[in-house]
User: Fold this.
Amino acid sequence: MTPAINEERLLQVLVAPRMSEKAMRLSADSQYVFRVLRNATKPEIKTAVEKLFNVQVKNVRVLNVRADGTHFRGRVGAHSAWKKAYVTLKPGFTIELGGA
Assistant:
């Protein structure tokens, strides 16, 4: 049973696809990586991917990427923490993300 989710929120849940070497390698196995909102839940991510890309999702795994410090020209700063979602699709479904 999928909970009722606001349609407007679904458009905001997926921030951007991750286009790294690992993400490209995983896409061969129908697994895609997205940057998502920090407060997004697995059911929201699943529903957003299914509605936006017209596919069926098999599994969703999430990972919180922690903030890390940085230095630039003698100044100390920090990169923000963010959340990553690994979305596995059911067999026969693919997503065209426009990668290389």
User: Anything to note?
Assistant: The CA atoms of residues 10 and 48 lie 5 Å apart. The helical segments are 7-13, 21-27, 42-53. The radius of gyration is 15 Å. The mean pLDDT is 90.
